[in-house]
Design goal:
The complex is a heterodimer of chains A (847) and B (119). Helix content of chain A is 54%, strand content 16%. In chain A, strands 15, 16, 17, 18, 19, 20 and 21 form a seven-stranded mixed beta sheet that branches. In chain A, strands 4-5-10-7-9-8 form a six-stranded mixed β-barrel. The longest helix of chain A is centred in the middle third of the chain and has 41 residues, at 319-359. Chain B has helices at 16-25, 32-42, 54-64, 87-118, and strands at 10-11, 30-31, 47-48, 67-73, 79-85. In chain B, a hairpin with a 5-residue loop joins strand 4 (67-73) and strand 5. The radius of gyration of chain B is 17 Å and the shape is elongated.
Chain lengths: 847, 119
């Protein structure tokens, strides 16, 4: 470009110079100035032509014509600002939504982990049906690490809520016990201190955030002694600010907080379970590693015929696959939904372009008539479409930036790496591609129409612009297609909405907004069994005395996750049940608002062998028989004293879990949940913290929230899916409305004369309205039928996202269709009314 | 003005103008008018060149990188664009000249043989 511009810059001056010299020479030979000049010009040749030929040397015809087309396209677009605005805005929404979803997909599913050798990292899991996720005994993990030869490095980790006490204060941290080659796998380099190695003890590494928040960023911190869960430990290092924990963690739904500290494994971890990641040696395949691990595990745990208890299912997966397995389906569906919206936007834009093309037919016909090649004219149309698409894409990118921020804020913590979503180069490339594809897609229709245009016919039809029966036909097909797509999106969103409502449904008597829940751990050696008992009694007494508190109780396991155990039911010794087994005080049931169905409550200080079942448990173990007075082994024999109402603590897709409640005794867990019911929770959290600090300031409560918040959190990823698919469906709905309105309006305009004739011949207002609305309805029904046929197989792909509703529930399909029928009625009503008020005299004069 | 009669003049073969320009520039840089004059003079006004057609040729050569254009001042102290052979252009001149000589020798031989045969 620059070489060309430099070369051509002073061409005319160069030529002028040449002519002047020649003229000068001629004068010197004795010619008159006028003759000299004329002779010079004659000898030189046609100056304009020469200049043109010289320029032609440099011409790259394709690019030059492209610029010409582009400039022309922008002029055309500027001349129709209304059309341009609508087209650009709808395109921006379509491209923006797609870009936002793709940036999430990019971050969650595609971007490699930021750890070294991310491609060699694998997940070593042993699925434990009792706890519902992978769990490897840490002693097994240690044995694998020393024996297995498929791996370079191996690390184990598990979640641990801990309390850190310094000389001045105590605060809870969400911590990870990190063993093996944990730090070398992450490749972290701490700005302060040294990370701990495989066999060190009593070390702690803190996050940058905790370093700033709790320790004021004091650089002398490294090496200082603290107490973690009542045990002495040393702060070894501070993690860099941008360090991210990117290993899979099943606990995020329960502890969405960022991880704040990393602890060395305590010596006594034999029975503890954890998660294991490893890096494969170069050249070792996943299946080779699996075979080795399987034989190792068989050697570690020889089959025991006397205890056939379900052995865990060992599996080795790429770490990235493991990390994304939970979200892959949902994100793929969102991506597909995005494509549907983009198709609708394209159809809509194509329809708009066709309407315009009809009024531009004369212009195009003239251009063809005066010799523009058909390809040249086609290319002009395509460039116009692309210009429009890229305007939309640019605005869409701005929209997407904002949407990504929104998505990151609203997104649930349980989607790994969602918070890293951003618009990077790959996202930009994606946006560019879909913009290009959309531009070509909606540019095809007007181009096709042009191809079919007979010159003669177009010139004759002329400015009336009403022509393009063919265009109208394509537009009808496009709009019907849009309705079909809209129906698919509406059914999808409807199914998610119905699931969500089902998940959020609660019995009328259940008032989670009046219940405060929190957790506490009584750590360390100073809390003997007797001390723990005393702490709980004191806690109940103090909390119960807070003004406004109606009931308060404790339950052994955290509210959101519980010790599921398998045991043979006493009615059928071969059957095992998965259930939640926990110890709870009677106050706990009152605080949560559970109701007694049969038998009796347990007394406040009851210690014996009486247990409570929830209804699901009673049904599972005893069927319709009365369980009261019967014995269950858990694993010691216990007598059923009462049956209480079912309650879902989480609103996850699972149904109600069978539960057994034991009385609280000295075998209570050191970590437990507290529930407090009050008529109004205002001021209660502060009062509870105050009372707990008064008993022991070194054991602060954590995860303090209302039960309502806790429940909402448990379905945050469902809400997120609904939010995204819902926005798509809304966009689809608006597009369908705009599309059908546009086509019906246009069709009425094209038929003004015909309608005028009808009115003149005595057609009534109602007839005209009916005729126009019927035309819209025909399109609508066609679209709906196609949409239903297409949705029926597609919604099945959503099955794993649904709860309490079948993917083919006819009610949802019916509702979505009804919404679209109403939309079509509404959208064709206005044009119909306008048609009905056509004055025959004016209409007949319409040319 | 040309001093020969129109009938005596020969139209240039396609592409030969490029070779002539390269040859003209071999001794040193020159401006457009000077190049045209040199070609006219050296061909003893036999070759019919519309002076203007020099310019597309010059630009063709610039585009191929065989010559370059620079601002300069001419003998009578006027600003002018000077065209100059590049190293690549010098090599090209050699190639083209050789080819041209081969071609003209071949043609001359053919014509001579044909002339002898007809006697």
């Amino acid at each position: 470009m620059t070489r060309r511009r430099r070369a051509l810059a002073d061409l005319d001056q160069d030529i002028r110079e040449h002519l002047e010299r020649e003229t000068q020479e001629n004068i010197e030979r004795g010619m008159s100035p006028a003759d000299a000049r004329a002779a010079a010009l004659r000898k030189f040749g046609n100056v304009g032509l020469i200049e043109e030929q010289t320029r032609a040397v440099w011409r790259r015809p394709w690019i030059d014509q492209f610029w010409q087309d582009l400039l022309f396209a922008f002029r055309i677009l500027r001349r129709a600002p209304g059309f341009t605005a609508i087209a650009v805005l709808t395109l921006a929404v379509g491209i923006g939504l797609n870009t936002a979803v793709f940036s999430v997909v990019n971050s969650v599913l595609m971007r490699p982990l930021e750890y070294p050798h991310a491609e060699r990292l694998v997940w070593l899991g042993e699925y434990d049906p009792a706890v519902g996720h992978d769990m490897v005994t840490l002693s097994d993990a240690a044995a694998w690490r020393t024996t297995a030869r498929s791996f370079d490095q191996m690390a184990s980790y598990s979640f641990q809520q801990s309390t850190v006490a310094t000389s001045g204060t105590a605060f809870p941290v969400a911590a990870v016990l990190a063993g093996g080659d944990f730090w070398s796998l992450t490749g972290a380099t701490p700005p302060l201190g040294r990370l701990f190695g495989p066999n060190e003890r009593d070390g702690m590494v803190i996050s940058w955030d905790v370093f700033q928040r709790q320790f004021g960023g004091d650089a002398h911190l490294v090496g200082s002694a603290v107490t973690v869960d009542g045990r002495a430990a040393t702060i070894r290092a501070v993690l860099p600010r941008n360090f991210r924990f990117q290993f899979p963690r099943w606990w995020t739904a329960l502890h969405p907080e960022p991880l704040e500290a990393y602890l060395t494994l305590p010596a006594e971890t034999e029975r503890r379970g954890g998660q294991v990641v490893a890096s494969l040696k170069p050249g070792v395949s996943v299946s080779q590693a699996f075979v080795e691990l399987q034989s190792l595990q068989r050697a570690l745990h020889p089959p025991n015929p006397s205890n056939p208890a379900s052995p865990g299912t060992l599996h080795v997966d790429r770490l990235h696959d493991q990390l994304t397995s939970g979200t892959r389906r949902a994100l793929s569906i969102l991506l597909a939904a995005g494509v549907l919206v983009l198709l609708m936007v394209s159809a809509n834009t194509a329809s708009l372009l066709l309407a315009r093309a009809a009024s531009r037919r004369r212009e195009l016909a003239i251009r063809l008539a005066i010799g523009a090649g058909r390809f040249r004219a086609l290319r002009q149309l395509l460039v116009e479409s692309l210009a429009l698409a890229f305007l939309g894409g640019a605005v869409g990118l701005l929209l997407a930036r904002w949407m990504v921020l929104l998505v990151v804020r609203l997104g649930p913590a349980s989607i790994p790496r969602l918070n890293e979503a951003s618009i990077d180069l790959r996202v930009l490339a994606f946006t560019f591609s879909i913009t290009l594809a959309a531009g070509i897609l909606f540019g095809i229709a007007p181009g096709f129409q042009l191809w079919r245009t007979g010159l003669h016919e177009a010139l004759k039809e002329g400015a009336r612009g009403a022509g393009g029966r063919f265009g109208l036909r394509i537009r009808r097909v496009l709009v019907a297609g849009e309705l079909a797509l809209a129906l698919m999106l509406l059914t999808g969103a409807g199914l998610l909405l119905a699931s969500f409502l089902r998940m959020s449904a609660k019995p009328a008597a259940f008032t989670p907004e009046k219940v405060l829940v929190m957790k506490v751990r009584l750590p360390g050696p100073q809390y003997s069994r007797a001390m723990q008992q005393r702490y709980r009694d004191e806690l109940m007494r103090r909390l119960g005395a807070i003004p406004g508190v109606e009931a308060t109780g404790v339950i052994s396991a955290p509210l959101m996750f519980c010790c599921t155990e398998a045991f043979p039911a006493d009615t059928n010794p071969n059957q095992t049940h998965l259930l939640h087994l926990s110890r709870a005080t009677p106050g706990y049931f009152r605080a949560l608002g559970m109701e007694l169905r049969k038998g009796r409550w347990l007394a406040d200080s009851e210690k014996g062998d009486a247990i409570l079942l929830n209804e699901s448990m009673a049904r599972e173990a005893f069927g319709s028989a009365d369980p009261i007075g019967h014995t269950l082994k858990v694993p010691e024999p216990r007598v059923v004293a009462g049956v209480i109402s079912d309650l879902r603590y989480t609103r996850l897709d699972a149904g109600v879990v069978p539960e057994i409640f034991l009385p609280v005794d000295e075998r209570m867990t050191i970590g437990f949940s507290i529930a407090v019911r009050a008529a109004s929770l205002a001021g209660i959290p502060a009062a509870v913290r105050r009372e707990m600090a008064a008993i022991d300031p070194s054991v602060p409560p954590y995860d303090v929230k209302t039960l309502e918040e806790a429940l909402a959190e448990s379905i945050s990823s469902q809400r997120f899916n609904l939010f995204l698919l819902g926005s798509f469906a809304l966009a689809a709905f608006v597009l369908a409305l705009v599309g059908i309105y546009g086509v019906v309006t246009y069709s009425v305009a094209a038929r003004t004369r015909e309608i005028g004739v009808r009115v003149a011949l005595g057609a009534q207002r109602g007839n005209v309205i009916g005729m126009v609305v019927a035309e819209g309805m025909m399109l609508g029904l066609a679209g709906i039928v196609v949409g239903l046929a297409a949705s029926y197989p597609l919604t099945r792909l959503m099955t794993s996202l649904l709860y309490g509703i079948k993917a083919t529930d006819p009610r949802i399909f019916a509702a979505a269709s009804a919404i679209l029928v109403l939309t079509v009625l509404f959208a064709s009503w206005w044009p119909a009314r306008n048609a009905a008020s056509i004055e025959p005299v004016i209409a007949l004069r319409d040319e | 003005m040309s001093t020969k009669e129109e009938s005596e003049r020969i139209e240039l073969l396609q592409g030969t103008l490029d070779l002539l320009v390269l040859r003209t520039l071999a001794p040193g840089p020159a401006h457009g008018h000077a190049i045209a004059k040199t070609i006219e003079r050296d061909s003893e006004d036999v070759l019919q060149v519309e002076q203007g057609s020099l310019y597309p040729a010059l630009h063709r050569l610039i585009k191929r990188g065989w010559i370059s254009a620079n601002e300069g001042t001419s003998e009578n102290n006027r600003r002018a664009k000077f065209y100059q052979l590049t190293a690549k252009g010098r090599r090209q001149l050699h190639i083209e000249t050789t080819r041209w000589e081969k071609l003209s020798r071949a043609i001359a031989n053919v014509l001579k043989l044909a002339g002898e045969g007809s006697v």
